[in-house]
From TrEMBL:
Segment forming the signal sequence: 1-18
Pfam family, one: p450
Keyword Heme attached: yes
UniProt-listed InterPro entries: Cyt_P450 (IPR001128), Cyt_P450_CS (IPR017972), Cyt_P450_E_grp-I (IPR002401), Cyt_P450_sf (IPR036396), Cytochrome_P450_fam2 (IPR050182)
Keyword Cell membrane: no
Stated name of the protein: Cytochrome P450 18a1-like
Keywords assigned: Heme, Iron, Metal-binding, Monooxygenase, Oxidoreductase, Signal
UniProt similarity note: Belongs to the cytochrome P450 family.
Length: 495
């Protein structure tokens, strides 16, 4: 009986596979990596380090690859020039129809990261304009960042050179920068609600990254406890309630069009749209639901990537103490120890700036970028025809480890970002914020935070591994972002 059931099951799988092969016209697709299994496609070939798998296959089969992930066609782009070409073009600016995208952004109709079309255009334009008004890239925001850094430095001082996990303090400090932009408010490191929201956002980022297969294998969704999908939804509901409470408080206090923060700016835009309903954007874009989604995206994207980059940065400094000392010498000479570093010091500190760039290249915080799609129709790329609705993975890790662009890519060498006369030089192929129409809108804020936090930390402290600590594992853990494995450090006060 068991043998008969097994035979019937195999016949069923074969029938599904044959029907699927007949249904799909492969056309002029890029090369693939091997046999396509029934139901699951090429997923069995993938390890937990998909970015490394894709890069290795790119070297073997070609810079453009096609894979079947379940029933979905995916094209992986492992080449800088091809990524740049594709993402400059309108036809590749869509977002794929993904299960996890849909459940976390209400079918890709909320926010700016996962939307497309008019909603994306108006939300992105509003975010760029408002963040610029809030001081993004300007001295007014710089002073707020430095105030947060002062609080962080005092908290580190309290550790009295004992070993500690830096991540909690760093998360709260970076999140407070976003908090000032959005809420015009500082939250204490012991504020349970605020720190809880930050922790649960990061939990969701890790779960969504690890539950990647749910996008392609629908039958896995019935195991919600194993995949922790229910945790994601519970956390998201809590975030939305928390953000909506802040929106309501702002609405009660908002008057005379006075704008103090991002929420006020959105409320003012809502008022403008209500008075001129004929405007293209109208209430479909400028409402409390969209505002709540934008706050969530600013918090998650604006906190996680920066804290992760800085966490990697301190790891690299501890493993390369001579580089840490070189940076501190530059800080001492150009800034001293009696004033805080500022963005105006950056041009005078090329080695420090080059080290931050090398940290970004080596860390590959978002190794696979954010997926794109050509939803409007088939498109040509690299001599191949990409069918409509194909999911596009930009493998930024492959770009940042391409030996043609970066000689000895596994070596940590800030000098690769310096010209012969010692000035900062950013070569083609440096894409930590992606490229094209949908590159990261928080790039200028992230650059400011990275420079100020990094230099202020190294101005006051030297960082080292605790006595007897094992050599850190530099492989990282891939979710949506590539994070270092938990580690402890000692912050030694510089005399």
């Amino acid at each position: 009986m068991l043998s008969l059931l097994l035979l019937l099951f195999l016949i069923f799988l074969a029938a599904v596979w044959l029907l699927d092969q007949r249904r799909v016209s492969h056309g002029n697709l890029p090369p693939s990596v091997g046999f396509r299994f029934p139901v699951v496609g090429h997923l069995p070939y993938l390890s937990r380090d998909a970015h490394i798998d894709f890069a290795r296959w790119g070297e073997k089969y070609g810079k453009l690859l096609h894979l079947w992930m379940g029933e979905k066609l995916v094209v992986v782009v492992n080449d800088y020039e091809l990524i740049k070409e594709a993402f400059k073009r309108e036809e590749f600016s869509g977002r794929p129809d993904m299960f996890l995208f849909n459940v976390t952004s209400e079918n890709r109709t909320r926010g700016v990261i996962l939307t497309e079309g008019a909603i994306w255009k108006y939300n992105r334009r509003f975010c760029l304009s408002s963040l610029r008004d809030m001081g993004m890239g300007r001295s007014s925001l710089e002073s707020k960042i430095l105030d947060e850094i002062d609080i962080l430095l005092a908290a580190i001082e309290e550790k009295k050179q004992r070993a500690f996990d830096f991540s909690r303090l760093l998360d709260a400090s970076i999140a407070n920068v976003i908090g000032k932009v959005i809420f015009n408010q500082h939250f204490g490191y012991d504020d349970a609600e605020f720190t809880g929201v930050i922790a649960s956002i990061q939990t969701n980022i890790r779960i969504v990254g690890s539950a990647f297969a749910l996008n392609f294998l629908p039958f896995l969704r019935i195991f919600s406890r194993l995949t922790r999908l229910s945790t994601v939804m519970e956390n998201q509901e809590w975030h939305e309630t928390y953000f909506m409470d802040h929106i309501k408080k702002h609405r009660e206090a908002f008057h005379d069009g006075r704008v103090n923060d991002f929420i006020d700016a959105h409320l003012l835009q809502q008022e403008s749209c209500s008075k001129q309903p004929e405007q293209d954007a109208g209430p479909d874009v400028f409402n409390d639901i969209q505002l709540r989604a934008l706050i969530g995206e600013l918090f998650s994207a604006g906190t996680d990537t920066t804290t992760t980059t800085l966490s990697w940065g301190l790891l690299y400094m501890m493993l390369h103490p001579h580089i840490q000392q070189h940076i501190q010498k530059e800080i001492d000479e150009q800034v001293g120890d009696n004033k805080r570093p500022s963005m105006s010091d950056m041009p005078k500190m090329p080695y420090t700036a080059a080290t931050i760039l090398e940290i970004q290249r080596m860390a590959n915080v978002v190794p696979l970028g954010v997926m794109h799609a050509n939803n409007a129709g088939p498109a040509e790329l690299g001599g191949y025809t990409i069918p409509a609705g194909t999911t596009i993975f930009p493998n930024l890790y492959a770009v940042h480890t391409d030996p043609k662009l970066w000689p000895e890519p596994a070596a940590f060498r800030p000098e690769r970002f310096l010209s012969l006369d010692g000035k900062v030089l950013i070569p083609e192929g440096f894409v930590p914020f992606s490229v094209g129409k949908r590159k990261c809108l928080g790039e200028s804020l992230a650059k400011m935070e990275l420079f100020l936090f990094f230099t202020c930390l190294l101005q006051k402290f030297s960082f080292q591994l605790p006595d007897g600590a094992a050599q850190p594992d530099m492989k990282g853990v891939l979710g949506i972002t590539l994070t270092p494995k938990p580690y402890k450090l000692c912050a030694i006060r510089r005399s």
